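> example.struct
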């Protein structure tokens, strides 16, 4: 799998960790929030800019949007998942 997916491939240790969590009835693999961890801020301007970018070019990538709009990658993914 490492040949196919490169660095995006999960490590064997991470697979074991997720398996342990699922076996213990923990259904989310996202990181738990930690004290001092920054929370992404989503503004109406960001929403409009991302929507306009996608409407302008439906083949634009998340990385391209993040670079052109100077918005965090995670915020763009969140916005794209929430756009109807």
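> example.seq
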């Amino acid at each position: 799998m490492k040949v196919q997916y490169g660095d995006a491939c999960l490590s064997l240790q991470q697979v074991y960790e997720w398996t342990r969590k699922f076996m213990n009835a923990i259904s989310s693999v996202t990181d738990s929030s930690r004290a001092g961890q920054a929370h992404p801020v989503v503004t109406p301007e960001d929403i409009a800019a991302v929507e306009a970018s996608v409407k302008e070019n439906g083949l634009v990538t998340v990385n391209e949007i993040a670079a052109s709009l100077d918005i965090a990658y995670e915020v763009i993914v969140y916005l794209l998942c929430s756009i109807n």
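> remarks
The CA atoms of residues 66 and 72 lie 6 Å apart.
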